[in-house]
C-alpha cells in the first residue's frame, strides 16, 4: 500500500452500501461475515443502505441485486458467500449475469492479499466485482476473514473519496455517462 494514501484535504464522501449474505443456512443471528462487513463500513463512515440474506440460488441473488441496482439509495453492494467451487456456489454466476463491466483488478488484488494469508488455497475463491447501472457490485467469499481481507485491503480504500492516487467514488458520477449520451441523442 505504499502508493496509496488518504488525502486529508479532500472531504470524506459516505457511500450507501447494501450487504448481501448468500447462504442456505445463515440467519441474522449467526451471520458473522455480514456483521463483519456492516461493522467495517459503518466504522469507516459509510451508510448501511440495506441488508439481506439470500439463498444460494441464481434467480434469488439476481432478483436482490436488480432491486438494489434499481434503488437510487444504493451506491454499492458487497456480498459474502457463494464464491467457491461447489455446486451450490452460484454467486459469481449471478453477479456476472448483471454486470455491464467487470472490475478484473478486484479479483487480482483480492488474490494477492489472500495469498499472503492462505497461500495456494486462494485459488478456491472466485471473488469478483463489476458495475451495473451505476452501482458497484463486489462478491467476497463467505468467511469473516475473507470479508476482513476484502474490506481492509481493497474496499476501505477504493470506497474512500480521499484515497489517492484514485478511487471508485470519484468516478461514480461518470458510470452512467453512456446512458445520458444515448438519452440526449434521441
Folded structure, characterized:
It is a single chain. This protein has about 190 residues and is α/β, with parallel strands linked by helices. The protein has a single domain (about 15-185), classed as MoaB/Mog-like domain (Molybdenum Cofactor Biosythetic Enzyme, Chain A), CATH 3.40.980.10. Helix content is about 40%, strand content about 20%. The chain has six helices and eight strands. The strands form two sheets. The protein has a six-stranded mixed sheet, sandwiched between helices. A two-stranded antiparallel sheet has the order 1-8. Helix 1 links the parallel strand 2 and strand 3 (about 45-55). Helix 1 runs parallel beside helix 5 (about 145-160), helix 2 crosses helix 3 (about 90-100) and helix 4 (about 105-120) packs across helix 5 (about 145-160). The termini are far apart. The mean pLDDT is about 95.
Task: List descriptors.
186 residues, Molybdenum Cofactor Biosythetic Enzyme, Chain A, six-stranded mixed sheet, 6 helices, globular
Task: Summarize the entry for a quick read.
Residues 18-162 form the MoaB/Mog domain. By secondary structure, this protein is of the alpha/beta class. It contains six helices and eight strands; from the N terminus they run ββαβαβαβαββαβα.
List the helices and strands and how they pair.
Layout: E1 5-6, E2 16-22, H1 32-43, E3 47-54, H2 58-70, E4 76-80, H3 91-98, E5 101-102, H4 104-118, E6 128-132, E7 135-140, H5 144-158, E8 163-164, H6 177-185
Helix pairs in contact: 1-5, 2-3, 4-5
